[in-house]
Each structure stands twice: as C-alpha cells, then as structure tokens.
Write a structure and sequence with these properties.
The chain is α/β, with parallel strands linked by helices. Helices cover 46% and strands 22% of the residues. The protein has a domain of 200 residues: 3-Layer(aba) Sandwich (Rossmann fold). The longest helix is centred in the first third of the chain and has 24 residues.
Length: 288
Amino acid sequence: MTTSIDQGGTDREQWRRTILEVAAAVAPGWERWRARIEEATAPVREWMIAELAAHAGDTVLELAAGAGDTGFDAAEIVGGHGRVVSTDLSPEMVAVARRRGAERGLRNVEYRVMDAERIELDTDSVDGVLCRFGYMLMADPAAALAQTRRVLRPGGRLALVVWGAPERNPWISILARTLVEGGHTPPPEPAGPTPFSMANEDGTRALLAGAGFTSVRMEEVPVRFTFGTVEEYVSYATDTAGPAAIVLRSVSEDERRMVTSQLERAFTSFAADGGYELPGVALAAVAS
C-alpha cells in the first residue's frame, strides 16, 4: 500500500477511503500504545496547549484527535463552563477517544466523527483549534485550513503540529525507506499526503496564509522515541504506523525477519542504555 496519493478530486476521495481503512486497522494499536505515544510526544502536546492559551469557558475544537489527549488537556483548562469538541474522520478513533475521556473523568467533551475538510460547525463558533499530526495526512489540507479559519472566532488561535523533514525523523523515515528499498511498498507520490508533506516551513506558512491566517509563528519541537529492542519497535510500528503498519502485517515471517535485521543495522547509531533512542523533530505553528 502506498503512503500517499495524488491530489486530484477523484484521488482525494480515494485517499479519504484509504485513511479510513488504515485508521480502522490501527485504532486498536493506538489504544494499546497510547501511553508510550503520549510520553514520546509530550513536548508537542505541552507546546500546543501553552500556545493555544485557552481560557475557562472557551470552546475548543480538536481535529484528527486520535486518542484525544491533547484536547483533553484543553478540556481541563476550559472547565465546566467550557467545551471541547473532539473529532476524527475515523469512527474507530473517535471510540478510542471516548474511552480515554471516560478514563480521565471528563464531562465537558463532545465526541464527533467529522471530516476536517468539511467541518460541521457554525462560522465563528470556537475559540481555539488543535490539530496534532493531522493536516499533513489530509487529502486537501488547504481546504481543511480554510474550514478551520471559518469556524474560529475573531482573535481565536489554531495550534498545529506536523512532522519536520524525513532526515530529522529517523524514528519513522528509516522504516519507510527500508520498506521501499525492500520492494514491500512503492515510493510515495511526491505531491501526496505523507507524514512529511508539510515539513517545509515556507510551504506550511503559505497554506496558512492562503486559508486567511494573518499572524503565524512557527518553531521546532524535538521529541524522542525509546525502545528496548528492535523487535519492540517493529511491534510498535506494526500496531500504529499507518500504511506502513498494513505493509508490515502483510509480509511473510521471513520478510519480517529481514526487515528487522535491516532496521537493527540502521539503528546502530541510536543505541543507548541497552536499547534505542530514536529522535524526531516536529514543526509547530500557532496562527490567528
């Protein structure tokens, strides 16, 4: 399965169908690995909440919320007189978020299946929007950002995060390269949505400006994923890594062992404390 698709109208619909299929497949894995994911990406979540600067009583929308923890942190800030609308294109992911919200005892969160490119909320209806690692995987991020601008009240803020350049994110780019070089998946289409499709700061600024955002500030946020063994990493990727997870589930046992062996060689420089520390860099933006 390719990790991207062309941006024509028909292809956009195909990408939406693909992402729904992938999300349904990996949602259980995201729930199993949720704590590990949140531990690794805590700097991103903390940056977003700080820059959103929500207040008690605000309404906050989270797009592509996944398991929902970023929005749930905002829910604790806006309090009982505020509201968080936690959304995802995938019904399975919304179900994961609903269970996580119940674990946290939150009563001011509304859960909705929603396409970020067609936000089903009134114009000027929310005070802030969060989107963590979502826009980069959307078929039409320009449309999603325009919709985001529409629903934001004057003075409202968008806090978003996407992944930086592949070479600065070996935690995912090495796996992608290994699968392509091994012939397990074709190279991604250059113009399609991938984890790195918004890694260029100038390009992301242009998308935000095109959507009507006039004030944009961007910075890099480092993260780090830790694994005890390469086998643990492969298990993590098989459970959570989007289209790459589907590929890993489809290979034979011999092919899986070969991929693991190749990753062991590639991860040598990241060995630390008896395991592996794989760095990453997120590109974060706050816009209004």
